Amino acid sequence: MKPFKHFFEADNDRDINIFAKEPRKRAEPLGQVTSAGKLDIERYIDNLHQGGNELINTLVADSNFITKTGMQETNDYLRSFRAVMADAKYRINWTNFANHVNNRFDKYDIQSDISPTNGDWNMLEKYLPRIEEFVESNAEDWFEEIFTISHKIAGTSVGDGEFLLGIIGNARKGSDKGDIDVVEGQPGGTMIAGRTVLEVGTAGKIIGASSREAGRKNYGRILRDLIIKDIKKFQQIQDNTWPQLDELLLSYKVLEADTLLTLVRDLILEYSEEDPNPKQLEKQNSKLTRTIGGLVLYDYIVGHKDDVIMSINYGTSRYKRGYAEGGIDLYETRYAYPKKMGLRRTIELMINKNFYNFMLDGDATRFRLGTKN
Asked: In the prediction, which pLDDT does 206 show?
């Protein structure tokens, strides 16, 4: 929490005197505050009286979101969460908050939110009722603030939404490559980490190993450019182009199996000839782009040993303007189990359900929620 003296700083319009009184001693003046400052102090004292500080420490520690030295006193996530919980606009029911902190691993099973092999829901709508149990005013604003808490951990970026998922149910920051682990059991007791491993991203998240290496060009983009180059000149892929395409395809480890390589080659051939219009083929929701993007996504999830890919409609204006991009609501969420579905079904999901769009940019492959147009 903020130092107590902080309440007596900054404002010039202070007109309320604050006193401290010990038992059997005369009250001593501490300073002057505004009416809003008086409410902040009341909240601060109420928080301490009801064990709010300890509850906040426990929730963040159990989430496994720890920055810097690994110690709680230097943890940016603890600092940010404390600041939100201390904001006077949020009326916290500390009894209900304690119930959430102490029982979330048993009470709220995130696994049930991500079943069966793919689905969609709105994250704000799904978790707001749970938040309103302990945030009794401006709960939607609280959600939005917590959603965007993001600090690097051990030099690795953490995306929007990850911290929220790590404190809202039986999940915590992944112990390995994954973003979030759904777990069984309780911290401090018998806990099985990694029951399900989620890779979480908002609009524009980068996928693909080569896409994340400095100075490396995006193989997916090169692949599509070669195809479109032939389509522009000949309306079909030339025989002498296939060796180059195969070399690029084999950079994805999942295609070391001949059957999967043949599958992707056949799909590329089919969708490049189905509508040999270069401008259509280079769109982020074309069947060709989704075939390549689906491959990149599948290879990424298999390589990372994740179970679930989850995308949330939130990000820069390039991606989140729903009215211009198929009417997708803010915080709309789509998840899938690529490994469980296999490569063919993963690609089919992208195409047949307009599941994800893929931006095959020059430097990286990015993805977002899919649109029809």
From this structure: 92
